Amino acid sequence: MAAAAGLRALGAKGSGWLQRGPWAPLTTGFCSRGPAGIGRPEPGPRPTIARQRDGIRNIILSDPKRRNALSLAMLKSLQSDILHEAESQDLKVIIISAEGPVFSSGHDLKELTDEQGPEYHAEVFQTCSEVMMLIQSHPVPIIAMVNGLATAAGCQLVASCDIAVASDKSSFATPGVNIGLFCSTPAVALGRAVPRKVALEMLFTGEPISAQEALLHGLLSRVVPEERLEEETMRIARKVASQSRPVLALGKAAFYRQLTQDLRTAYHLTSQTMVDNLGLPDGQEGIKAFLQKRKPIWSH
Amino acid sequence: MAAAAGLRALGAKGSGWLQRGPWAPLTTGFCSRGPAGIGRPEPGPRPTIARQRDGIRNIILSDPKRRNALSLAMLKSLQSDILHEAESQDLKVIIISAEGPVFSSGHDLKELTDEQGPEYHAEVFQTCSEVMMLIQSHPVPIIAMVNGLATAAGCQLVASCDIAVASDKSSFATPGVNIGLFCSTPAVALGRAVPRKVALEMLFTGEPISAQEALLHGLLSRVVPEERLEEETMRIARKVASQSRPVLALGKAAFYRQLTQDLRTAYHLTSQTMVDNLGLPDGQEGIKAFLQKRKPIWSH
Amino acid sequence: MAAAAGLRALGAKGSGWLQRGPWAPLTTGFCSRGPAGIGRPEPGPRPTIARQRDGIRNIILSDPKRRNALSLAMLKSLQSDILHEAESQDLKVIIISAEGPVFSSGHDLKELTDEQGPEYHAEVFQTCSEVMMLIQSHPVPIIAMVNGLATAAGCQLVASCDIAVASDKSSFATPGVNIGLFCSTPAVALGRAVPRKVALEMLFTGEPISAQEALLHGLLSRVVPEERLEEETMRIARKVASQSRPVLALGKAAFYRQLTQDLRTAYHLTSQTMVDNLGLPDGQEGIKAFLQKRKPIWSH
User: Fold this and answer.
1) Which residues in chain B are closer than 8 Å to C132, comparing Cβ atoms?
2) What compartments host this protein (chains A, B, C) (predicted)?
């Protein structure tokens, strides 16, 4: 697990919120792409960029020339950035965004020709599935911030995040069927996010839905005008980052576990989760602070 | 089972539909809170009020000074009012509403401090879970009528009802995370009512959603202007109360049972339910009445 | 299996898109209702009409005088038309529509009186359930095109299709409860399409929802003005028909199978589906065509 090399500092970019304000460079381990500096960093071997400030980690799909295709390299880079010091109490929330007009176009088709062969194909889909499941099993909330087109495994990535905020110009599609490759793995995440009729029309026709439709049907939690996308995403991220990390971790794990259980089992599990939560130092601190009408001071 | 003491007559209240028209007092057993009279009744030991007319039982969370907190006493009172003569053919539908600007603020935090200890905490969550499951297993439809803020276990109560009608000024939140207590048990009901991204944004940020958003995402079945809330809820309740009680009971039980089954098992179960339904006296009476173009006369 | 007699040619009808353009008559086996000709065909023993062109099969519920009731004869006729040459590579997509102002009123109540008895009732519900499950297990996508009222098992039929397009004047209800027969089998499909509160209000009150509400809640994938219904449905059908049939069949089967699995199992299944898909001739042809910037030529 090469997670230690997972995060790199972001050099100053042409636009966007990442370079506004004093984003401190991370540890050397994070800065594997070379020194941050004025101007666009030279393209390196790793196609994601990550940095972290105030508990908020930003991971940016950063291969716009290839429409941020989820190549095996991109998937491993993303996985590494998500896993990097996942247990650190300094990490509170992760935002996944993308550079350029396409959030992500999904798998890199050059990796799926028969020259590569079924074993390589299997590795691609297995790695992709692991990244998507990692998002759910990760201890901190993970937010997708989408500004543009997200297709196929790119749409799957949005559907797999805990929260998804998009600009109103964004759109979403699973167009694999157009090139004879049905979006079966994206359908796992899509089919758990939107009603099945919406999912099937997308899967069978390959046609996109708008951000508003995606919100209507549950693929997004929020849609905002493009100029407010970063502000709104950061507002949510800061709110999440202000919470107790152990409490969020406990709650997130319980949420996904109970979701597929029968009602009695789900209540049995979560009632125990509530008791465990109250046994955490932050559980008692929060209630005491509330009753004493003061701000809680979390243990981390 | 203290159900016999579960329902009390409502004294005349300052406003609201309950005192409009000739609501007959219920049996003595229901009137444990003291005589109904002019003016607000004195606060008694039980924090819910219930009365019944024309097959419609109204249960009112009636502790507005404590924002209708679901204390253990409130939960037991609610449970008792729901269970009271549940098998009586005179009961057709239950409405749960609340007094004051807050529908319910969820658990009483004073019951969750470490002075009480984990055993007491466990009793609180277990009782709460039993009430929520009771709503689903109860033979008659249960409607939430919401006019105001419903948070945490209060939001869970709305999500657990079969039908939920709210005024457009209502809002819904699971803010436990703000005080270090993730709303894990409310998440069971919430996660089965709204898309997971909506649920997780609510759970991770603690921020409220409006009634319109709640309708959009499936937490409510209907939103109306405040001045039409009682009228619309009563219209639905009367429609439900006009149906055959044994038919509703059979159908409600089958609905929840099939919902988590695989498709083939679900159709096997419900096909048998249909045959059983036709074997009920009301099943044949309804069809005969329809074919004879007359109103059915139900057996109860 | 009387599928060979399942499809009949449509005679020229008074209105509608089916007779526009050169719809070739199908094989003799399809034309069991008599010769196509000017004017309305004489009512025959089979209450559905079907014909096929350019890979698109149209099945029309064609008993408007009885509000297209899903009698046992109608269900068997529909089943036969769906199953007819289901494995033929010439069939790409099926549209189910209806003649007259009512899409379908559900079961024929004359078949559900106690004169028929529980064995006959069981056959009706079992056949109906088989048709609904057949829609999901069928290798090609099946689209409901709704222009009018769809109630009870008629609403179930819409909910069971893969895609559902409706005119804005359409409406949907499960009113069985009004005649003492709770829509328990329709609830299987309805409860998997819309949020449970919406489903339960429909089931408990019997009241209809509009096409817009049905879209909002996931029962439909698309709503259009009545005058654009055929055009929009045909646009979707043609798009689906332009895809590779084996790819669609693989993807459709995987979609429904993974939907009820836990996440890990679902990704394991669908990752294998992706690899299998790439192993299909059309899988490699599609990717090659894309990389070579040309239109793919499917094997069928």
Assistant:
1) 267
2) Mitochondrion
